[in-house]
Design goal:
The chain is mainly alpha-helical. The chain has one domain. 71% of the residues lie in helices and 0% in strands. It has 4 helices and no strands.
């Protein structure tokens, strides 16, 4: 509990051996003024401490913002570098894949063409074999027809010889038989029979020859049809396909480096004035001390003039203010007679 009536200045003067007889009003004014001055000094120190704390917090926040910006920029650069490298790796893999596929497709195309050439060669071989077979078959059929015709001709010749022998025998028997008209008729009848039989044999042989010719023509037509069918079934000669175009890739990407992140703006602290409390304390303290001195002087002064003034109430009632705007007031009261 602070004793308001404690005379700090008197105690200090008593301890220092400089104790003086000071009026209580002036002493109180001095103590109050000193308190104001000390309060101003304390306010200045508090303002200085507050400024230092605010400056410390400001620097810490600014440093933290710079660290966040640095880490963000570093991370963005790493992400940009990794993305770019991934793109390069993927593009190289794509190029290798396209090249391998192009080589594989080219090999498949060449293989398919080689197989087609082999199949075409086999088809040509089969067609030639079929044509050869048709030719041999036609030759054998023609030969068989010609042999049959020759056999018919040989048989006809033997038949004619046998018929001639029979005619001669009949003529001889007729000549040895009856005489006169009967013998002549017998000879004529025998000759007529020979001519009739010869004519029949000629007609039969001629018909056989014509039939053989028709058969040979039919064999030729059949061979021609078989050859056409064999040629129609033959494969078309294969042709090499155009070369497969070389693989192409899309245009390369254009990379834009990430924009640098700036530190977050930190509001600078508003500094408190450290001199204002001192000046204010000095002014208020000096004013209070001056006011105490003035009041004490006014109370002890007896004016020789009568009371005058409409507001003072007595002659000589005058208020003198000095430094009212700065807080330092000097009031002098002049009492009347």
């Amino acid at each position: 509990m602070i004793n308001k009536n404690y005379d700090l200045l008197g105690e200090q003067l008593a301890e220092s051996g400089l104790e003086m007889n000071i009026d209580p009003i002036i002493g109180g004014a001095i103590i109050g003024g000193t308190t104001k001055i000390i309060g101003g000094l304390l306010g200045s120190k508090q303002a200085s401490d507050s400024n230092k704390q605010a400056e410390k917090i400001y620097k810490e926040q600014k440093k933290a913002a710079e660290e966040v910006a640095d880490k963000t920029n570093e991370y963005n650069k790493r992400v940009f570098k990794v993305d770019k490298q991934n793109y390069i790796n993927n593009r190289a893999f794509e190029r290798e894949t396209l090249t391998r596929k192009w080589k594989y497709d080219t090999e498949i195309k060449d293989y398919q063409f080689l197989q087609a050439v082999k199949q075409y060669g086999k088809s040509v071989e089969n067609t030639n074999d079929r044509l050869t077979y048709n030719s041999i078959a036609a030759m054998q059929a023609s030969e068989a027809e010609n042999n049959a015709l020759n056999d018919l001709r040989v048989e006809d010749a033997f038949s004619r010889q046998g018929m001639l022998v029979d005619q001669l025998q009949s003529t001889g028997r007729a000549a040895l038989g009856q005489a006169g008209n009967s013998r002549t008729k017998a000879l004529q009848s025998s000759i007529a029979a020979l001519g009739r039989n010869s004519a029949i044999m000629d007609a039969s042989l001629s018909s056989s020859v014509e039939q053989t010719q028709r058969n040979l023509q039919q064999i030729g037509m059949q061979r021609y049809a078989a050859d056409l069918q064999a040629k129609a079934s033959m494969m078309i000669q294969p042709q090499q396909l155009p070369d497969i175009p070389l693989p192409m890739q899309a245009p390369e990407r254009i990379f834009i480096e990430p924009m640098e992140v700036l530190p977050q703006a930190i509001q600078a602290p508003i500094r408190q004035s450290t001199s204002a409390p001192i000046v204010s304390g000095l002014i208020e303290g000096a004013g209070q001390i001056g006011m105490g001195i003035a009041n004490n002087t006014a109370n002890n002064y007896q004016s020789p003039f009568p009371q005058i003034g409409s507001t003072g109430g007595s002659f000589g009632g005058t208020n003198l203010g000095i430094g009212s705007s700065s807080g330092f007031n000097l009031n002098a009261n002049y009492g009347g007679f």
